[in-house]
Amino acid sequence: MTLLYLLVLVHVAVAVQVSTKSGKLKGDFIRNQFGSNYYAFRGIPYAKPMISNISSKDAQPIEMWNGVRDATIGWRSQPNVTNERQELEDCLYLTIYTRKIRRWLPPTMAHTYQTSPVEVYFQGCNINSKDNQTKSGTDNLPNDVVKVLIYHREIPSSSPGDKTKTDITTKDQLLALEWIKDNIVFFGGDPQRVAVFQGHSGLADIDINRLFNRANRT
User: Fold this and answer.
1) Each residue of 170-193: pLDDT tens digit?
2) Angle at 130 between CA 184 and CA 82, to 5 degrees
3) What is the CATH number of domain 12-217?
């Protein structure tokens, strides 16, 4: 008699909440088919939404929102993103993957808890950005690291010496780093131990270390 064993790989996601200085977020607690557990928060805004008539202007810090914001969807799925042009303009969001969170941590007590180092990756806003794919942020995610993907504008320069467009990108990145500095502790991250990587943006002319130092001085 032949015994047939059916192996079912289950991907389980349970909603969780975290309170940040910008407001409350609803994310996912995920257990994948390999038995790895982690939290995922996608589509977190670090700046006010950009629209076509201000897409070339400096981004402004996000204001505190009311209620609980849904962070179970990526920035491409936000209600205000309805076409490809808007995807490239209104994309000032970030995604966080972590093994631990501080669900009910008062901001005044954040410094009293043990935290983990943070890895930040600049992704840019292009058609190949895949923040909706859970697997994209959790491959080889160490137990003691918080991973952050930052999406920012990549506006083509009109000439090789045009620094205006580069400045827009740099300011987007700086604004995101400032949000991380203020809020990453609620996701188990240490704002004093952040490693910044270029990711897929391809903007080799930006001094990443200088950018991060500027964020720490604000």
Assistant:
1) 889 999 999 999 999 999 999 989
2) 100
3) 3.40.50.1820
